[in-house]
Structure formats: structure tokens, C-alpha cells
Amino acid sequence: MQLSNQAIGAIMMALQESLLHQTDIVPVIQGWKLQNSNEGLIVTNPPTVRMPTDLDEEDTSADAE
What gap in Å lies between CA 7 and CA 20, rounded to an integer? Predict the structure, then answer.
């Protein structure tokens, strides 16, 4: 059994979310529902990444340059 590209992407999304919000990645992965497919193991409920909403003007103006 192998991981599909979708499952690898789900791992990367969970890692980004964990690093961004300084939270534990383990509960996210434990909550995944997995399904076997022709492409390999897939995550049927992949995580979403929430961006912080408290960015100040200085942070957003640096991206525009």
C-alpha cells in the first residue's frame, strides 16, 4: 500500500497548518478518514489551511512589492 499524491498533499497541508498556528499535527492526522484507491491511499476529509486575519498593514504591503 502506498500514499497517493492527494494523501501526500494532505500531509503537507496539515504540516503547514500546524507550523502556521503552532499546534500539534497528531490530532489532525488521527482524525483523517482514509480510503484505498487505484492511485493509493487517499484522505477523504483533508485539512484546510486557515490564514491569520490579524496581519497589520506593514505585513500586507511587503507582499505587494
Answer: 20
